[in-house]
Amino acid sequence: MAYLLHFLLLILASLHLYATTETPEAYVIYLGGTGSEEAANSTDIEAVNLKIEEKERINLIQSYSHALKGFSALLTKKEADLLSRHDKVVSVFRDQILHPHTTRSWDFLEAESGLGSERAHRRASNDVIIGIIDTGIWPESPSFDDSGMAPIPSRWKGICMEGFDFKRSNCNRKLIGARYYTGQPDSIHPSLSFAGSPRDTVGHGTHTASTAAGSTVQNASYYGLAKGVAKGGATTSRIAMYKACSIGGCSSSAVLKAIDDAIGDGVDIISISLGMSSVFQSDFLSDTIAIGAFHANQKGVLVVCSGGNDGPDSFTVVNTAPWVLTVGASSIDRIFQSTIVLGNSLVLQGVAINFSNHTGSQSYPLILGGDAAAQFTPVSEASNCYPGSLDTKKAARKIIICMDNDPSVTRRVKKLVAEYAGAKGLILIDEDEKGIPFDSGSFAFSEVGNKAGAQILEYMKSTKYPSAIILPTINLDKTTPAPVVAYFSSRGPGGLTESILKPDLIAPGVSILAAAMPVASSDTTPAGNKPSSFAIKSGTSMACPHVAGAAAFVRSAHPRWSPSMIRSALMTTATITNNLGKKLTTSSGANATYHDTGAGEISPLRALSPGLVFETTTEDYLYFLCYYGYKDGVIRSITGNNRFSCPPDPSSDLISELNYPSISVGKIDRGYGGVRTVHRTVVNVGPANSTYVAEVEVASGLEVKVSPEKLVFARRGTRATYQITFDGRRAEKGYRFGSLTWSDGAHSVRTVFAVNIV
């Protein structure tokens, strides 16, 4: 719009006066929401250049104009500082690098729900559009076939951008849109290399897109493993791909542009399987995903994000803004077993994906990595299979045993070290990652935990000539217990605020089979095979599109529900037990807490009929920003509403009052009363004349009271408010966990809570 263009020109002109010899860097300049004003004219903004020191340089990288105002540009630090002080600017921050964090998974989720799905699936429409912000897409994959799909919804405003290897005809009624983002000079982020095309060059985006909404593909497998029917969670939904990432990561300014474009194009749900490291979390107004997701919610678009792969430590979960649906990862009831047979006939069940030609009729000498150390190499390095640490004469034609005492040496590196040393195979003893299969291609590889590792080492001591064989992988289904919280899945509490419980949910993120780039890899493609159209991957990146697909499934049945209502339905109907009927556990076998699981494992079919929902409005989120500490003027700029004011005496303690489907109280001080009361409001989306009764489950020591204990709804759509009081005067210090369940006999509406006693 003319106002914003004029504003930019004034700022850029003033910056010219402060030009220095500093090397410019990429910054994001966030100007807030569009409000009710006319959106900025992107073409005009992109024509703005900044002339510094008599050299013409294109200063603008991206511009944002659909749901938010702003741009990214090359600026010196002095210019960025000057710009940040302007009263029309909400925030200025460096353009950061973000990183990307199926046959059985959806069947497993349906089986775990205990519900027949045929009638539920018939309720789904094909008008839901999922925007995927990722590394691009491989359009020829059978997962994106559009056979039998209806015409593209008329409300769709997006485009199918062409590139040197991507044609407009690559889009269809399933893949209805594709964009890619370039324009940032390589000198700014040299690790990023963006080809001019929406085509996937990494494989991540193709995998996540097909997990969320891939078409049904019969006889899918990964070279014979995980054979079955591949499908997404919302097989009739549409996909729009926004390629903002490359092999080196994702430019945060491009991610924000992708969110802005997706909103303007008309998507219903945005799936973002990426984020910054938990070590470098910034505040909500210096986080492009948080900024973009806020404005998406304003426009009725639900944003689903991965929570990160920095687990199992506490305070590692990212993408924790309360308007983001944050997802952790869990296993499904399938393992990829790579059996180890020792020379004494002891059989150990390792985990890996390997397609070696070993058979049970042969065996190879076993040797510890430390015993195969090259000259002048410390034993500790050879034990961990450091690059260059193994003596080829000692390792050749043997199976190497390596440890994982140093996480900086990845499994891929260890495998390559053993392979280059001429070894016939590698056994890795690693307690932490023992359940996450590593793909070693044709090289014999298996991974075991400490218990099996101790058995191998004991055998090594018992004989002068130890030997073993590593058999090719087979997959075993219907394993127990499942789901289990993945070792790598990032955990709460949230680092920015402990008064919102994160992650929100967990979903399948271990050994997920989905579409892939059919490109041969010397590391993983078995000898004599063509590249596979499917791949098996693990990460919260894989869990995120499961929730996006489930959300699309719920929205297809309830098109008028707001993003927060869909989130609430998924959270309050989540399961907190495994397929043995016991409490969810972590990969170590310990009982999981709600900082591990959020509300629990998604159950998409149950979410279709939640009974009650918690609706969180834009005004609620604005009050959250007040309580968090942002000033009125900043919040007015964000929302585009000049009439908004924070309530008197905002306090961070009030964040727990946000009408959220879970409860987190970051601090109850026993020295100052030890009692805290929070309030919630629910909407009846079930039958009229319903009565719900409260039931509390809580750890010993913490006392919890609910008032009233009964909620009565005369009609559908009516609301009821209740309060829940936590008394921690007799509780031990630390987090106490529990849940409040409202039940009418047909619906169970569970709200989990975490309360920190200090």
Characteristic key phrases:
alpha/beta; Alpha-Beta Plaits; 4 domains; 18 helices; globular
What does the model show?
By secondary structure, the protein is of the alpha/beta class. It has four domains: 2-95, Alpha-Beta Plaits (2-Layer Sandwich); 99-333 and 483-607, Rossmann fold (3-Layer(aba) Sandwich), CATH 3.40.50; 335-476, Glucose Oxidase, domain 1; 612-616 and 658-757, Immunoglobulin-like, CATH 2.60.40. Helix content is 22%, strand content 28%. The chain has 18 helices and 42 strands. It comes from Apostasia shenzhenica. Residues 1-21 form the signal peptide. InterPro entries: Peptidase_S8/S53_dom (IPR000209), Peptidase_S8/S53_dom_sf (IPR036852), Peptidase_S8_Ser-AS (IPR023828), Peptidase_S8_subtilisin-rel (IPR015500), Peptidases_S8_3 (IPR034197), S8pro/Inhibitor_I9 (IPR010259), S8pro/Inhibitor_I9_sf (IPR037045), SBT (IPR045051).
Short description:
The chain contains 18 helices and 42 strands. The protein is of the alpha/beta class and 758 residues long. The chain has 4 domains: 2-95, Alpha-Beta Plaits (2-Layer Sandwich); 99-333 and 483-607, Peptidase S8/S53 domain (Rossmann fold), CATH 3.40.50.200; 335-476, Glucose Oxidase, domain 1 (3-Layer(bba) Sandwich); 612-616 and 658-757, Immunoglobulin-like (Sandwich).
